[in-house]
Amino acid sequence: MDDAVAAASRSGIARTTRDERADRLEALADALEADRADLVAIAHDETHLSTARLDGEVTRTAAQLRFFAGVAREGGYLEAVVESPDPSLVPPRPDLRRILRPLGPVAVYAASNFPFAFSVLGNDTASALAAGCPVIVKAHPGHPELSRATAALAAAVLPAGWFGLVEGMDAGVELVRHPGVRAAGFTGSVRGGRALFDLAVSRPDPIPFYGELGSINPVVVTRQAAAERAAEIGTGLVGSFTRDAGQYCTKPGLVIIPAGGGVEEAARAALGDAPASRQLTPRMADAFADGVEALAARPEVTVTRGSGGDGVSTPTIVSVPAGAFLADPETFLAECFGPVTVVVSYADDELDRILSALEHSLTATIHRGSGEDVTALAERLSGIAGRLLFDGWPTGVAIGWAQHHGGGWPATTASVHTSVGATAIRRWLTPIAYQDAPQEVLPPELRDGNPLGIPRRES
Amino acid sequence: MDDAVAAASRSGIARTTRDERADRLEALADALEADRADLVAIAHDETHLSTARLDGEVTRTAAQLRFFAGVAREGGYLEAVVESPDPSLVPPRPDLRRILRPLGPVAVYAASNFPFAFSVLGNDTASALAAGCPVIVKAHPGHPELSRATAALAAAVLPAGWFGLVEGMDAGVELVRHPGVRAAGFTGSVRGGRALFDLAVSRPDPIPFYGELGSINPVVVTRQAAAERAAEIGTGLVGSFTRDAGQYCTKPGLVIIPAGGGVEEAARAALGDAPASRQLTPRMADAFADGVEALAARPEVTVTRGSGGDGVSTPTIVSVPAGAFLADPETFLAECFGPVTVVVSYADDELDRILSALEHSLTATIHRGSGEDVTALAERLSGIAGRLLFDGWPTGVAIGWAQHHGGGWPATTASVHTSVGATAIRRWLTPIAYQDAPQEVLPPELRDGNPLGIPRRES
Known about the structure:
- 2 copies of one chain form a homodimer.
- The first copy, chain A, folds into 2 domains: 2-213 and 412-458, Aldehyde Dehydrogenase, Chain A, domain 1 (3-Layer(aba) Sandwich), CATH 3.40.605.10; 218-390, Aldehyde Dehydrogenase, Chain A, domain 2 (3-Layer(aba) Sandwich).
- In chain A, helix 5 links the parallel strand 3 (106-109) and strand 4.
- The first copy, chain A, is 38% helix and 17% strand.
- Chain A has 15 helices and 16 strands.
- A 7-stranded mixed β-sheet of chain A has the order 10-11-12-9-8-13-14, sandwiched between helices. In chain A, strands 5-4-3-6-7 form a 5-stranded parallel β-sheet, sandwiched between helices. A 4-stranded mixed β-sheet of chain A has the order 15-2-1-16, with no helix packed on it.
- Chain A has helices at residues 2-9, 18-34, 36-47, 51-74, 123-131, 144-157, 169-177, 190-201, 223-242, 263-271, 282-296, 322-327, 329-333, 351-356, 375-382; strands at 81-83, 96-102, 106-109, 135-138, 163-166, 183-187, 209-212, 218-221, 254-258, 302-305, 316-321, 340-346, 361-367, 385-390, 429-435, 457-458.
- In chain A, helix 2 packs antiparallel against helix 4 (51-74).
- Chains A and B meet through helix 4, strand 1, strand 2, helix 8 and helix 15 of A and helix 4, strand 1, strand 2, helix 8 and helix 15 of B.
């Protein structure tokens, strides 16, 4: 551990140019795609995710690496500002120039459910390297061989110290407490994330801890939407919550539908065609079974199960009337990782109370009727959602400058930031202001005449 | 407390337009200046700061309020991004639009040493209101009457719930733990800030806590600078560290000078002309006396005192050779709030070790010779400084887009953000992404055609 952090501290990545880092990220993407077949095979053995899904995830992960290469090359993420002296102001303004600089070594806690895209060379690693921070990944125990294989790629492509891998729970604890580590990113459970967050903030020198934790991702179907396309919504719901065994942080875990609108019947009908899949680990499958059992044990609940089999988790719909949901919202709002969703049926005068019970989530979704004005509902949900989407399903998180993958507790430990999209890089950066600095001391991005031509604010 | 938070939650400020909030901030600035004479008189009674200084601080505070009004009006702070659908990407990109929205009620812990500019209507309050967050200020006990008088101005100018004031340590503790409070800003001591930070992060739902704490603000004088202008530097130093009884978070508390370069003699000579002033509270004066005593008790230390008197704190220079400093850096790096600075004299081969002992600070300063290349020294100090300045003094913090007032622990609890300058507003905002949203649901800043004409990124 000390060796890995010491190597990171000596790496010199903070002094590289943005183009150098972008070149390396692109080389990493190429290397990942070159080894695609071998990596997918290892991942399939370890995670039981389908090879088609894993193949797509490799493509996504390579796209993320190239995307952050582009973010680094462009330079807008530096938030550079150049202000000339103005003695007429109160207080007078000197020559002042601001830029963001890398925080230093970053600890990344890999996720189980995206063995490529949110693991060793995933979003956290790509954004931190783009920022100029060396990365030490704590491998997820769910896919150790894959973690080592992707780490070996990184070792081959990246200069010494830019990247390190550690394994085991003790190493994970040691990492977040290590004096040389300056920030941490995490994707996983509320319990695990909270434990590491507590360690990060109780250090003698607290460090930022960006944890992406649990999320129920409520979906609200209006009466008009149900009237117009109950069958489509029911089928779409089943496709979304059973996709890859329901192991998405953006899985729709709570679906709020108008009573008697036909959505539930459509979903139940579609459930028979949903595939039953093996979950990532036996422990997750057990937790899933326990979670479904706890939901099923509540009064007034109806459980509908799809096809099952040995060693797989059966797609399940838990239906509950609004009254029973409101009598015990905590039970129904607990995230259950796997192919299950809770469907709450509302009479029109119950919707408001259901919405009031919701916690912060990574996403919230509205299915509305054609031309229906859902402004009030959208404003209500915007207060608890990191991403608010319409007439679609939250699984699937696009990459871009406009993406936000975050939200208030318990969706994340740091609601001000995102773990997906260009601005994920902001997590690993701290500002510095230069006052009356000679030109040669300034980073080139702040020098007179903007020699590197980056987007910057000048006044 | 519950009443204040409930009123804040009901305030509706999050739904106001940027122009409405800007109008209110400007009205607040006008009101502050209209009552300038009365307010300065109250402040002078309570803080013992000079009326000239306090008068200037009112002007600064009004300028800050107007500055954040301008930040709100411009809208660039929203970081708006509009991305059109692109099905060719992996994963495919929907219509995705991102904006920042206010976090909700903000707790502001006022500082003692800037009874206007970092207190009731100071930077934290101005930036939070501009962001659209209601504010509840915990008054500093050092100026209770002034706090009430400025709070009364706010009550007269601002709509119900936008602003509240609470007093007393218990209220301060209750505030940061209150479920309705969504973020906190703090300016004060390491001990007080750490205690509140610990409460904020140990909540069932942790909230961001932006604390600006202690800072030693190292100054390095090169041998060439000393050779060229020892007298000017010595005099400037005394002016800076004794200004307003040395009660600045940016006071130069550690000055690293070449042995035998003449800077120390010049500073000692200037010390006789430095004013002895009464500190903000008797407790601070006692802590100052204790701090100086602890420094003076170390071996090899020379203490030079300026003029003193009853009830005032005597400007003091504590001189220490590099060897003695390096034998016990912790003692010499402890912030001592008041008119004292530690001068460390180095032989050329000792400078590196002294720099290695430094902690993070709000500022670091280099005095260099004419045309001297200080690139290596600047790079070294940029790793520990929020603001790096040249041939000047760190007291005095300009307002602007390029300003940064922050730094790593122990300078702040949140090194990724700033408490002064336009980007201070970023602390009170969280992103939201809208996916495939109908136009009428979107904030006007994200609608097609950019109807409000704000700076935004489109692709």
